[in-house]
Amino acid sequence: MSGFDTIIEGVLLGGVYALFALGLSLIFGIMRLVNLAHGDLILLAAYLVLSATTALGLPLAVASLLVVITMFVLGFVLQRLVLERVLGDDILPPLLVTFGLSIVIQNGLLLGYGADSRRLQAGAFESSSVALAPGLSVGLAPLIALVTAVAAVALLQLIFYRTSLGRAFRATADNPAIAQLMGVNERNVYAIAVGLSLAVSVIAAVVLGIRASFDPSIGPARLLYAFEAVIIGGLGSLWGTLAGGIVLGLAQAIGGRINPEWQILAGHLAFLVVLMVRPRGLFPARRA
Amino acid sequence: MSVESIHIPASREQRPADAPVWQVRVGTRLSRVAAVAGIALIVALAALPAIASRNLIQDLIFVFTMLTLAQLWNVLAGWSGLVSVGQQAFVGLGAYALFAGIVMAGLDPVAAIPLAGLFAALVAAVLGPLLFRLEGPYFAIGSWVAAEALRLICAQFKSLGGGTGMSISPGELSQMVGLKAVQALLGLRPAAARDVLVYWLALLLAVLVTLGIYAFMRSHHGLALAASRDNAAAARSVGVRTARTRHVLWIVVAFATGMVGAVVYLQKARISPDAAFSVTDWTAYVIFIVVIGGVRTIEGPMVGVLLLWGLVTYLAQYGSLYLVVLGTLAILIMLFMPNGVWGAAARRWQLQLFPTQRWLGRSEPGPMPF
């Protein structure tokens, strides 16, 4: 059963990586912005939820909702005040600004919370498991993480293809100038996209915080996993990102089963192999 | 560039016979003065160990190596559009190759430095074709992933200390080429003499890399890269092909970056995967230097490294707060002074110490302008 366990573990882990990746994928798809601070923003969200549950004593669900709203506003403001000024044909300024932001957030968290590992408390829920079949049970928390990832992809897909906001997103992604001529407010669309990206990241943060302990230094690694999931899955496809996350999770679980030291390395190598054999990812979008 | 102010005759037919000849100039009067001053400065710096304290020598090793890394990153990201966040990969590889050369192969440390560079270049040559499949901003994270993978691979080598790292004993370094001569020349103990030797190597690398980049940017390859960066479609339409140049540049930059890594770790004599592949030490600082000084200039990194040196000296004791300040400063500079301190000064006072921009000028009667 050991091999089967590993596969289940990998798939469940993949759900978490897909959640990391959704926010990154979202703003790249709409505004061609690669946010190097993405991982650190996930960590910021995790610490905000931690503060809301411990300092304010709120239940996890209420705290998460509060932080979703906070991060949405933060994203909106970040785009309007900072990122908007550097977006353009030159790819260097936005990369450098988000890289600077990553350093600021990471070290700001170190100052505020210290380097100790923390964890979100979710009560009995975090250690309980469900039996899928006789002799086969999986942890409830990882399972819910995967279900959440699927639900998040479905919800974003719905927003993209069934709402007027989604139409504005797609129109702006295709051609910002013409979208503006058609009455789309490009500045607002971008700001909402960044806000939405950070709001989705809060879900990733909560799942991360329940499953494992976290400290301020792990942000960049989350960015890399998110990025690997996006590229393995193929640019421009949300379901592809979910699949990419699962492939990455599987690679890490299998690598970790062979030798615990190889877990992360196996993920990176899987990414490089995909880049070698399928440079456009496993499930690229049909439209460019 | 004040191209707008230059009057160009409407057509060749209308031009009178004694019309001035237009030509492209790169040099300026100031740049020729700067060249002389630069040579004097290099001579003075080379002679400095005779009088300087060991602390100053160690600080200047930091300045020279960071300057070299910044120049290399600038040519890669600024001029050729390859924004790498993974240059720590080549610092780490160079450092590990140096340690492997000394510990496993028993090579002389000084001789191992170029070999360390070659090793980094070899890995870059293998990784390049893969990473170049990622366009623009995605190349940035892709290079970071590659660096992380290489860090984890280096941590697997138990004979090089595995994940915790290792030190080289002073005894193993005491037979280093040139060390005895430096000891005799300056009357120093082996440890201080090693610092002086590393200092000269770092100075040599900084000078060679800076001049190399300067020559490259003034060559037609450099012009092609700049043109392609500014407008890829227009550059292609006039026959500029840069894929090969960028690929070769990526490998050459890795070669030099690997040598810098080897020089840095020859002085430290202690290595660990986390330190040698540190994104903060070898990429964040380097980006900070270039951004603050001014991207796409040779002078910018020089100004930037001096500013970083000042900040490190006075603020590094504050740890995380110091990095928050650096990051915030870099963001503000990017927002409000996108050409950096040097870029802003150069624009205001028309300064060009290492001119790489081309100016269309009228040839004056008398001596040639350059």
Automatic annotation (TrEMBL), chain A:
InterPro entries found in the cross-reference section? ABC_transp_permease (IPR001851), BCAA_transport_permease (IPR052157)
- Membrane-crossing segments per the record: 12-34, 64-83, 95-115, 135-160, 189-212, 224-250, 262-279
Query: What's a single GO MF annotation on this record?
Result: transmembrane transporter activity
Q: Name one GO cellular component term.
A: plasma membrane
Instruction: Classify the protein's membrane topology as the record does.
Output: Multi-pass membrane protein
Q: Which UniProt keywords apply?
A: Amino-acid transport, Cell membrane, Membrane, Transmembrane, Transmembrane helix, Transport
GO BP annotations, alphabetical order: amino acid transport
User: By its UniProt entry, which Pfam families does this protein fall under?
Assistant: BPD_transp_2
Q: Where in the cell is it found?
A: Cell membrane
The answer on whether this UniProt entry bears the keyword Cytoplasm reads no
Q: Which PANTHER family match?
A: AMINO ACID ABC TRANSPORTER PERMEASE PROTEIN, BRANCHED-CHAIN AMINO ACID TRANSPORT SYSTEM PERMEASE PROTEIN LIVH
Q: Which family does the record assign?
A: Belongs to the binding-protein-dependent transport system permease family. LivHM subfamily.
Q: What is this protein called?
A: Branched-chain amino acid ABC transporter permease
Instruction: State the organism of origin.
Output: Bradyrhizobium niftali
TrEMBL record, chain B:
Instruction: Fetch the InterPro entries from UniProt.
Output: ABC_transp_permease, LivM-like
Q: How far does the signal peptide extend, from start to end residue?
A: none
Q: Which domain of life is it from?
A: Bacteria
| GO molecular function terms attached to this record | branched-chain amino acid transmembrane transporter activity
| Keyword Coiled coil in annotation | no
Provide the membrane topology annotation: Multi-pass membrane protein
Pfam families, sorted: BPD_transp_2 (PF02653)
Which CDD domains does the UniProt entry name for this protein?
TM_PBP1_LivM_like
Q: Which UniProt keywords apply?
A: Cell membrane, Membrane, Transmembrane, Transmembrane helix
Q: Which GO terms describe its cellular component?
A: plasma membrane
* Main localization of the protein described in the UniProt heading: membrane
Subcellular location(s): the record lists: Cell membrane
Q: Which residues cross the membrane?
A: 33-51, 57-77, 89-107, 113-132, 196-217, 247-266, 286-309, 321-342
Could you tell me what this protein is called?
Answer: Branched-chain amino acid ABC transporter permease
